Amino acid sequence: MIVDGSRLGLLRWQLYLCWSLAEYHLSALTDELCRWEPAPGSWTVRRGADGQWRPDWVEPEPDPAPGVTVGWISWHIGWWWSATLDHAAGRTPQPRENVFWPGSAIEPFATFINTVPKYVATSTPLGRPWHNATAIEGGLVEFVQRLKQSPGGDIGVHASISVAQALLTADAIDEVRLVVAPAIAGRGRRLLDGPPPMRLELLCNATSSSGYLLADYRLSR
Fold first, then answer.
1. pLDDT of 36-50, one tens digit each?
2. Are 117 and 143 in contact (CB under 8 A)?
3. Structural domain boundaries of the chain?
């Protein structure tokens, strides 16, 4: 794995790698699988009277350690990463008792994607209401350039080759994150057909256990 060497760069790449692998491997995970106990006495997450999901926990940890459910593992990952990011930002981490399991296999992504502002490039009206979703009016490139100048965090482009190609052609994209599968399709649409020649600076890369190559590039200007 190659990283830019900074503490923030390392954390950013680890988050990206974990998120990408989770999207690929855990897409079929259900609530029932999250709470399936592999053995009697397994640690899991349990819903309290206040509606919050809390993990089983004993100090000191038993020896041998008990089995754990997928739900407990996902809670532990969330707790670990929240503490890591708090330390990196100079904040005091939340106590373990204040970090809860979200209560669903599709969380926290479902809450994130439903609450974050979304801008949809479409030639037809949005068919169904979606919280914080707005159809882009006017030119796509002009809209994105204005959006980049406004306060906020990173802007991501998902699920549209044509939108990505248009923004690459207009030099409106700063970074690309590519996932290369260990397979050759032989036919189909190609992401990089159309945009002009450009140079890329490798920020970081990694290979998953199943052979997927994940690469993060900055566009050189």
1. 787 788 899 888 888
2. no
3. 30-104
